Amino acid sequence: MKLLDKYSRLNITATILTFIIGSCTFYFLLNYILIRELDERLQAEQQEIQAYVNTHKSLPDIVRTKDQFTIYEQATAKVNTAFTTVKLKQNNEQEDYREIKFSLLARDKYYQVTVGTPLDETEALLQVIIGVTIAMIGIILLIGFLINRIVIRRLWKPFYSTIESVKNYHLSEQQTLKLERTDIDEFSLLNQSINEMVDRIQQDYGSLKNFTGQAAHEMQTPLAVIRTKLDTLMQNEAVLEKNAPLITDIEKAVHRLSRLHQSLLLLTKVENKQFLLNENINLGKIVTDKYEEFGEMASAMNLEVKVDLQPLTLLFHQQLAEIIIGNLLNNAIRYNRKAGEIEVTLHDSVLTVANTSEKGNLDNAKLFKRFYRDADSSEGTGLGLSIVKQICDMAGYIISYRFYEGKHVFTIIFNQP
Amino acid sequence: MKILIVEDEPSLNKSIVDYLTSQQYLCEQVSNYRDALDKIETYDYDCIVLDIMLPGGNGLQLLQSVKKSGKTDGVIIISAKNELDDKIKGISLGADDYLTKPFHLSELSVRIAAIIRRKNGMGNNLISFEEIVVDVQAHTVSVNNQPVILTRKEFELLLYLVINKNRVLSKNTIAGHMWGDDMDMADSYDFIYAHIKNLRKKLLAAGAGDYIQSVYGMGYKFALR
C-alpha cells in the first residue's frame, strides 16, 4: 500500500468519526437547549394563566393558535407540575408535542391544565444537522482527494524522481548519479545520503576492481615466467631426453592453472556485472561459427550433428555469447559417446543443445555449481557450466537441464526484457 | 630485424630475448619506463614488445609517444590484464597486436613475424625453408616451385612450424595456436597427430625432405635432420 493511500485512509476514517461524534454531540446539545427554551415558554404561559386566575378568579378563555394549545380538565386532586413529550395525532399525522401539566384552583375546583406546543422545529433542526454533516464529510473527502491527486503528487515528485534515478543507475557503467534538486528537507536529506552512499560504493567497487586487476597481473606474470621457462627448457635436448614426460605434465598443469585462473576472473566479472549488454549479436551465426570450430572434434568422434537454426538477434555481449555457445557445444561433444548424436536447435528465442552420452541423468542440483565434475572425468576446469549459468542469470535468460530419451538436454530461453 | 623488449619481469624478459635471439632477431631489452623511452626516442625498431604495467610509467603512454613521433615501429602489447577495454584501448592507440600472459614464446614469435611482414608491405610474403616456400599472402605452399594443396589447418600448422623452425614445440603449444587456449588438450592431441601425419605425407609426396620430427612423444620440431 502506498504511503499516500495509507495516510489518506487513516485521515478519512478519522474525519468521518470526528464528524459523526461531533454531529451527535451538537444535535443532543441543541436539542437540550431548544427543549429548555420551550419549557421556559410553557412555564411563562403557566405563570400567565396562574396570574389571570389569581386576578379574575376564573380560567382564561382558550385561544387556540397554530403553535400552542391549552386544555382544561376538571381534576379531583392537585397534581404536580410536569413536562412531557407526547405524540399526538393531528390532521392524520403524528406529531411530537411538548406539554406542561399543572393544577389550578379556580372557584374552589381543581383543574388540570395542559399547555402544549409542537416540536417540529427541533425535527427540522435534526434534519438540517444530518444534511450538513453528510455534505461536510463529502466536501472534506473531495478536497482531501483533490489535495492527494494534485498537491501531494507534486510534493512527492522529487521522491519518485530519486527512485527512478537509483533504479537506472548501474555501478559498472561508472556513471554519476544525478538526483533532482529539491527544497523539501526530507527529500534533500535522502538525496544527500544516497549520493554519499553511491560515492562510497563507487570507491569500494573501484578498489575491488583494481584489486582484481592487480591480482590477475601478479598471478599471471609468474605463470608467464613458468610457461616461457618451460618453452626454453624444452629446447634443451639433453634435458628433454630424460624428462619429456615430466615436462609434459608440468606444461599441462600450467595450462590448466592459467585456464582456471582466467575462468575464475571471468566468473567474478560476470558476477560483478562488469559486462554491458549493449551489442546486437546474431546468435545463429555464433552457433554456426562455434560449431565449425569444433567440427573437427565432432567428426573425429563420428558424431551425427543436426543443426536447425532460426535467425535470432539479441541485445547481448558478443564475447559472452561466444562463451555460452562454446561451453555448451564443447560439453556436448566431449561427453558424447562414439558415433553419438548432437542436436542443436534455435527456435523462437529458445536454444536447445541435446547430446547422447554414456552417462545417465546428471544431478540437476549440483550440475551448475562451481568445480562440479563427474567422478570419472578429470579433464576440464569444472567451471564451464557454472560460467554459462552465471552469464544467463546476469542477462535474465533461463537455463535448464533435463535428461530426455537418453539425451542430456540443455535449454536456454532468451527472453528479452 | 631489430626488436625491443620492454618487460619488467627480468626472467620473462630474458626468456623472450633468448627465444627471439635464437630465431635470428637482434634483441635489445629494457625493464623500466625511463630506459624504454630513451631507446624508443633514439632508435628505430622493427617491432617493440611492450608490457603495459612498468615501473615508472604505463606501456600505453610509451605506445602513444611512439605514434606521436611518427615512427613506424610495430608494437605488440603483452599484458597480464585480460581486460577487454585495455585491449581495445591498446589497439585503438595503434598497437599491432595484443597478447595476454601467459603466452607461448612460439606464439609471440609468430605474431612478431606477422607484424614485421605487414610492416614491410608486399613482396615480403614469402617464408622459405630449404625447398619449401610458404606464401603468407596468397595462402599457398610450393615445394621446388611445384604447388602443394593443403587444407586451411595444415597451412596454419606448416606456417607455425616454419616460423618456429629448429625449436621444439610441445603438442600443447601447437594446440594453443591452432584451436585457441580454450580447447582441452587431451582432445586436441589426436587432431595434431592427424594433421601432422597428413602434412608430412603431402610434403614428402611433393618431394620435400622429412623435416617434421617427433620429439620424445611430447612435441614436434621442424628442422633439418
Low-confidence stretches of chain B: none
Task: Give the end-to-end Cα distance of chain B, rounded to a whole number of Å.
Answer: 27 Å
DSSP summary: helix tally of chain B: 8
Radius of gyration of chain B: 18 Å
Structural class of chain A: alpha+beta
The strand order across the widest sheet of chain A is 6-8-9-11-10
Task: Briefly say what this structure is.
The complex is a heterodimer of chains A (417) and B (225). Chain A has helices at residues 3-56, 120-167, 185-234, 237-271, 283-300, 318-334, 364-367, 384-395; strands at residues 69-75, 82-90, 93-106, 109-118, 279-282, 304-309, 313-316, 341-347, 350-356, 398-404, 407-413.
Question: How would you explain this protein's 3D organization?
Answer:
The complex is a heterodimer of chains A (417) and B (225). Chain A is of the alpha+beta class and 417 residues long. Chain A has three domains: 137 residues, Beta-Lactamase (2-Layer Sandwich), CATH 3.30.450; 86 residues; 135 residues, Heat Shock Protein 90 (2-Layer Sandwich). Chain A contains eight helices and eleven strands. In chain A, the strands form three sheets. A five-stranded mixed beta sheet of chain A has the order 6-8-9-11-10. In chain A, strands 1-4-3-2 form a four-stranded antiparallel beta sheet, covered by helices on one side. In chain A, strands 5-7 form a two-stranded antiparallel sheet. Chain B is α/β, with parallel strands linked by helices and 225 residues long. Chain B folds into two domains: 118 residues, 3-Layer(aba) Sandwich (Rossmann fold), CATH 3.40.50; 97 residues, Arc Repressor Mutant, subunit A. In chain B, a hairpin with a 2-residue loop joins strand 10 and strand 11. The chains are: A alpha+beta (417), B alpha/beta (225). Chains A and B meet through helix 3, helix 4, helix 5 and helix 6 of A and helix 1, helix 7 and helix 8 of B.
